[in-house]
Amino acid sequence: MPTVNLWAVDGYISTPDGKSIYIWGFTDQEGGSAQLPGPMIIVKQQAPPDKTIVTVNLTNNLPEEVSILFPGQSEVEVNGRPVQPQYYNGGLVSFTNHVLPGETITYTFAAASPGTFLYESGTRPHKQVPMGLYGSIIVRPHDYMPHQPEHKTAYGAGTGTEFDREYLLVVSEIDPDLHQAVEQGKPYNIRSYKPRYWTINGRCANDTMLPHNMSHLPNQPYGAMVMMEPDEKVLIRYTGAGVENHPLHPHGNHTRLVGLDGRLLQNRTGNTTVDLSYKRFTVLAGAGQTHDQIYTWSGLGFDPATNPVPTVIPNLRNMAIGHTGMTMWSGSPYLGLKGELPSGMVSFNEVGEYHFMLHSHAEPEITNWGAFPGGMMTMIAVYPEGKLGHHHGTLPVESHGL
Amino acid sequence: MIRIRRSATDGHIDTPDGRAHYIFGFGNITGVPENELVNYRAGAELMAPPLVLQAGNEYIVTLTNLGTPTRPDLDDPHTIHYHGFPNQIAFYDGVPEASVAVPVGRDLEYYYKPLDPGTYMYHCHHEPVEHIQMGMVGPLVVYPIDYDPSRQAYKTAYGYGTGTEFNREYYVFLNELDCVIHNLVATVQEPDWTKYKPTYWLINGRSYPDTIVTDTGSRLLSQPWPALIGANAGEKVLLRFVNLGFQQQAMEMLGVTMKVVGMDGMRPVGQNGEDLSFNKNIIYIAPGQSYDVIFEAPTSSGSYPITLPFYNRNLVKNNLNGTQPGGMVTEAQIYPPGTLPPQTEPNRFP
């Protein structure tokens, strides 16, 4: 059975406008710094009737009580007893059993449903969750087998949730005043909560589009670029870890929502299955909620020889390209081709791939403290067939399994 | 191939408290000769002229950047982003970071062959925080391939046999306006977008009571779309909700049940064709979403017309910069059967 060792610690993250922000967060490395979001926990279910019991050992290296909530999981226990809220002098401190500074607590839960879930602090959560004490849990179905297409699914074979690649996007907000107050031990009135940064996987654009494990972002290890090839089914998992709702809009296509809050959008009665999945082009990633979606993109069949684009392509010197000094465009309207960009233009386009923006449509959230571009924005990169390595969009079967 | 042309330029709109607000926006310059384009500078409209398409047809939409006469120092490029177009290619997607944008004085042709009927939207994607807030936003409607307004079974939102027949249709296009930010842009200052705090809430570019004005005289020339809903008792009314503001809104109509037949331009249908349509009194809509709803105009047990309030249930937003009632408030007026003649275009009656 999987066992995850977590430490609640502090640390710093960076924003693209050059700020360093103090955070509280989780790490699964003893002596490590807090990372944002916390380590991705991926577990695979046991075949029924066996339960999948996950053990999480939490050691508290912060100056006050800390705890972890496991919303959507079953049989959450400490020392064999159901977790309970904690009070001090009659006041609510934690929604669940917490651990004092310097001590360790052991939680267990049963991962009863495949899907995407949140884990987060339940202690003074209005402060500790925005400070960064959150992460995401992926539960894989017991029949998950990544090398067999019919068994590479979000919710089990036969549920219509097959995918080729998968990406986890954890969204949240940051009010730097809160973080500064906690760092300096100064008071902060939560009524004045006012986000200035909006994050995907702990990063603000354009850092969201960088690869995993960048050396200059040591505590923000997860990239947020979605990469795929045409016709692939891409499972995009949203986790809403902030306290606000974010309308996330992917360009290029709708998504089909197949799971909400870690539950398959299907009703089964006897042998009758009613599929409740639906398509949207803007999904409200709500506070504490998760959305599992399948995104595909097949294009329109344009080809320079047999099916050219039916408009005049203007002289590119007369057009506005890369006004911020860079572009992600190839210079060609065709997938897999590169055109000649105006001289001096830096293009981050690799092999003629298309880039489709995925961003919050509450547009002030795609800024870094009010300056566009930034914030809750990334790209979906569609690579020409055969040009994208298989490792992109691959998450392990299990992250902390034995 | 059907050709449509849009200008990108600036202009002003009015709110009922007597204030004017600087905007950027689109205008309709389809068929305008080149030597007359100059007359369309400063002709931005809010909401932007709807892009009205039909599935299966091919369109070239030309965007012409006519500049911003009120801000001659500003040389911002513009684009058209057809929000939600399935399987779009990057070149026609209108994202400057991932394709090209149109500088002042230039044109760009966008090609669309829509295949999926429904309610979509279009907006400029250059510095989208600023250009969307400044007003470069409008609805985009795709009629089904078999659409035929002369035959009831074929006058539908999503095609014959989809249960989406309607008699009348109305845009309910939502956005908000922060007059402080509009003033900053008008006076060449850089806004801090984290301070965004709307002061006006608009349906089809207008705040109540302008929403219910159908004959505006010389007023509201750049806001040509009323939001007053009219129908004869028993008729089916299609409302096309689009939100291109930055806030969620909760639009409530009293006295009817609204059946949600489309979300983001797609019928709510499961993978095996399950009908997932549902009924609502309030449409809770986030930025960048659309809803298609159909309601049946009620019959009066007494006199006509019946007036049905239609307003934002986020009640504190129903004001004009805090000074007087206004905002996303309008009404539906229901007449005896046979009173109103058929519509010639959405939002028009009689």
List the helices and strands and how they pair.
The complex is a heterodimer of chains A (402) and B (350).
Chain A: E1 3-14, E2 20-27, E3 41-44, E4 53-60, E5 74-78, E6 81-82, E7 86-88, E8 91-94, E9 104-110, E10 115-120, H1 125-131, E11 134-140, E12 165-174, H2 176-184, E13 197-200, E14 226-228, E15 234-240, E16 246-250, E17 255-260, E18 263-264, E19 266-269, E20 272-275, E21 278-280, E22 283-285, E23 290-295, E24 326-327, E25 346-347, E26 354-360, E27 377-382
Chain B: E1 2-14, E2 20-28, E3 51-54, E4 59-67, E5 81-83, E6 107-112, E7 118-123, H1 128-133, E8 137-143, E9 168-177, H2 179-186, E10 200-203, E11 229-232, E12 236-243, E13 249-253, E14 258-263, E15 278-280, E16 282-285, E17 290-296, E18 306-312, E19 329-335
Parallel strand pairs in B: 1-4, 3-8, 9-12, 11-19
Antiparallel strand pairs in B: 1-2, 4-6, 5-7, 7-8, 9-10, 12-17, 13-16, 13-18, 14-15, 14-17, 18-19
Summarize the structure.
By secondary structure, chain A is mainly β.
Description of the structure:
- Chain A has a single domain, classed as Sandwich (Immunoglobulin-like).
- Helices cover 4% and strands 35% of the residues of chain A.
- Chain A is mainly beta and 402 residues long.
- In chain A, strand 7 and strand 8 form a beta hairpin.
- Chain A is globular, with a radius of gyration of 22 Å.
- In chain A, the strands form 7 sheets. In chain A, strands 12, 13, 15, 17, 18, 21 and 23 form a 7-stranded mixed beta sheet that branches.
- Chain A is built from 2 helices and 27 strands.
- Chain B has 350 residues and is mainly β.
- In chain B, 4% of the residues lie in helices and 35% in strands.
- Chain B has helices at 128-133, 179-186; strands spanning 2-14, 20-28, 51-54, 59-67, 81-83, 107-112, 118-123, 137-143, 168-177, 200-203, 229-232, 236-243, 249-253, 258-263, 278-280, 282-285, 290-296, 306-312, 329-335.
- In chain B, strands 10-9-12-17-14-15 form a 6-stranded mixed beta sheet. In chain B, strands 11-19-18-13-16 form a 5-stranded mixed beta sheet, with no helix packed on it. A 4-stranded mixed beta sheet of chain B has the order 2-1-4-6.
- Chain B is globular.
- The mean pLDDT of chain B is 97.
